[in-house]
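Lab notebook, bench 4. We co-purified these components, and the gel suggests they stay together. Before we commit to crystallization screens, I want a quick structural picture of the whole thing.
Request: model the full complex, all chains together.
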Amino acid sequence: MAIADSPGARRAGGLAAVWIVITALLAFSPELGLAPSTSRQLVLVALLSLVVSGLNLSFGYAGELSFAQPAMYAVGAYTTVIVAMRWVNDIALVLVVAAAAGLLLGLVTGIPGLRLGGWMLAIASLYLVLLVPDIVSVAKAWTGGHQGIGGIPLPQLFGVELDNNGYVALVVVVTSAWFACFRNLVKSRAGKTLSVLRQSPVLASSLGISVFSTKLKAYAISGLPATMAGALFAYLDGFVAPDTFGVELAIVVLAASILGGARSVYGVFVGAALLQLGPMQSNTFGDYAFVAYGVFLIIAGVALQRGISGLAADLAGKVRARFGQAVVRPATHTAAPADAGRITGKQLTVSGISKRFGGVTALDDVSFSVQPGEVVALIGPNGSGKTTLLNIVSGYYRADRGTVHVGTTETTGLPPHKIARAGVARTFQTPSIPAMSVRDVVESARTEVTRVSIVEAMLRLPRHRRVAATDSGKVASVLSTVGLGDLANADAQTLPLGTRRMLELARSLAAEPGVLLLDEVASGLDDDELDELSRVIRAVRDGGGSVLLVEHNFALVRALADRVVVLSQGRVVVVEAPDVVAQHPEVLEHYLGEPATAASRAGTGGK
Amino acid sequence: MIATLLSGLALGGVYTLVAIGYNVVWLTTRAVNFAQGGFVVAGMFVTVTLYHRGVPVALIFLILAAAGAVLAAVEYSVGVRPVQRRGDHAELVTTVGALTVIQGVILLLVSQDVQRVKSLFPETFLDVPGGRITPAELALIILAVVAGLGAHAWTRHTRSGLAARGVSEDRETAMVLGVNTTRFSYLTFAASGALGFAVAPFVGPKVFAVVAMATVLSIKGFVVLAVGGLGNNLGALIGGLGVGFLELIVAWQFGTAWQNTAVFAVFIVVMLVRPRGIFGEVKERTV
Amino acid sequence: MTEPLELDGVHSGYGDLLVVRDVSFTIRQSSITALLGRNGAGKTTLLRTIAGLNEIRRGDIRFRGRSLRGQPPYRRKFRGLGFAQENKRIFKRLTVEQNLVFGLYGLRLNRLATAARLTEAYNRFPVLADKKSQLAGFLSGGQQQMLAISQALMSRPALLMLDEPFSGLAPSIVHEVMRTVRQIRDEEKRTILLVEQAVDLALSMADSVLLLDVGKLVHTGPASDPGLRKIVEQVYFGARL
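Here is the predicted assembly.
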């Protein structure tokens, strides 16, 4: 399928055209007769939108609530004060410096801030806003202190002084350009990555995504629009004072973000416009503004989780359903063609792994291996150490002794995302499925397989397009392998449990794993679903994959496994073919736990 | 020097009182109630108003405690309980909302948003080496110490305090053992509201009744709590007094513009070096 | 006389996952009933449903003759239910004695009565008396389990539910705990419902057996039934595919 002719590409072209027309109209609106007072409002809405978009990126998409936007806004404004008044008055230069300062400040505050996370980040960033007046007054010689500083010259662009119309056009163009980048970013795979990260850091790291560095990137970028907005704002009245950048602004920005929908692009304009033209405008309403913001935050926090853009999307969905364009949503999957294609499996070697928790030995000198083209089952009674072992192999626990190799790479002690990048993919006991479409769930596993930089995604450079094409091909083929091809557009979280398990399997396969770890993948499935699952697992094995199956369902183990590793009280009891294991007296005894034999082992285990 | 020390401890006492309010709620609900600073400031405006009307002091305290308890319980039922069941930490947003509402209502109702709160004590000065302090400041230090030790004793020695710690550690087990966790959460919210309002007559003379002070108190109280160790009332006491002292020393040595920055720096450093706070619980053995 | 516990067509689960389906049984007074089944069979969910931590989706549970529907967990305790959950969920940051006193929460006992209950507990497991001022988190696994059982017994419940009380314990401790559980039935005349993974261990002390598989009750009967072990093996290792 040629990309240029796809309906997706055509829709993207149409969107770009609409985008350019609206930008042009707004940019020339003063020339087209917009009153100066109205064009001033236009500028204010644009600036607030820039600031709010930063919060949407860090809070809505990356899931970290930071109140630092007013501080970033202040940094931008004082960049203009210092650069334009003391150095060169060129707005392009000022914007570049402001953007660089924003990125830098984002990185510097993000490193401690994101390590704190949650409540701590929220408070620390609010505190940062509180510090703005103090810092401004400490640097009084540069900033004019508490009273503010006036006399900022009119903006110049490459030596040409901009009049008011020129300034409006510039603000509109900068806003439009940033929003295009913002939209491209969150609608690309990076947006899906952030979404996975926000909903489940554990899942994200199992897909090879580094939780910290991904959040840090998003956080650093989220400071950029606010500093640019601040730089533009300083030119608006030629006057800057610290009280513009207070806690009130932080509340307004949060309210605008939530009102428009914290996880939206266009909702930002709605939220910013409503707050700019509503409470911040009228004097009669002004008295009630604080109460209104507060009540609004409570209502929004309790009831309106996706803001106005969410309401609009729900409404659009209802309208579409009403007029016959309902999204077809079959309840279950179709039968799978049992072919997973060629898979380059890697050997998993576990040697001499031991692990103690407090005084209790969870694993004691456990060794076994899984070869490419082989299914090995790991079974054992409750508390025998299966989950602990799986968590060590995938990096969530650290072994006290012993090594794990994937192929020739030693993965002992690496963090989960690095182990995932070494080729280990896994499923979870309780399927970990974020709220997104089936296709996006599978695609999220591709993040670390084929990498695209943020800039490439923002500017839609050729590599982004190439990778998007390979990804969608791979996703389609994996979905058809597990029989979910028809459900690609369905909402993944609404699928029944069996289908969600198949979807997890599909996601693991999309990562092109060297080793596949399946954690109790059969629990809760009915007989038909079990047949289906066995077929897919066999297809993976026959294609050359290495599969480690942690399972309680012995019937499934019997049907699938080439070898069975039986674990009991942290030790390997036997490694044998399934039929041998089922007859093995020692295994029965470990499973059914004869008290007499348990007592005879007391000599070694007693306290 | 002694004057600076005492004045700093008095300021720190304010933070301690806010931090204890946070703690009580945190224990049973695992929520941080950003509105806590708002309770104190609202209490100050109520106090000023009641003073003007000549209401007897004892009655003022009763009214404050009742108003605070009701307000906090309403906040819990409207803004915290519904979102906690969802588990996405939206109380981060809703309690900021509650703080904003409190500030907004004060702005609507009062004629000036900066008011001086008359002291309960004689408005004289006590001479101490290096300067003088007011009886109100001394009372504030004593109140903070009493409240901190009292709250600490509550969590260590009383049945309800132990129950609160149990709820905090394992809600389900506490329920199985007979604790009505919902009623408990309401009660602790109400207690934190009553505390926040009722300390206002002590806090008022020290910091002035200013609407913007609500946010500052909420932030500083939380910083104290984080530094001292979330859930630990001794930490709240020592952290609070320490932070207040630090502010005054820095202001005295380098000027007032540096005092917030210094506290911020200490906060970040402590959080990075010891994320559980100075008195944070040691990790028990995992079996 | 009404039986201590009767289940009638109980369904229960988490989210869209139905873990317990249509389970009905009755438990006799002063007996030990072992609830067996593979991992994921729904044993823990069933106990949690009886305790009120999971909601009854369909069916009814009658405890000492009265329905438990709509009763929050804390009220079930006051009706005479004791529950030591899986993984020794005591309060690790409280001392041993504080944990025990927590078991009396809401009973409004005076100092004397409280002391009597504590003595009762310390007589059951004397080692706890030596450690009474220690934080529970610093006890060994076996001692934590003893504390969990003692905590559930403080309110002198008519029915005591134990979820995997022997898992992860050293064999000598297993025997001590087993002995005490038998005493609780024989001397204190309490009814016990026990979930245990180690089948033979459970059978050696139980009077009757409930066997759960994939959320359904597949067998009930006396623990002394000589054919029982075969049935259990069938369920655990049976070829169903």
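The beta strands of chain B are 114-115, 126-128, 131-133, 209-210. Worth comparing against the SEC data before the next meeting. The first strand of chain B starts at residue 114 and ends at 115.
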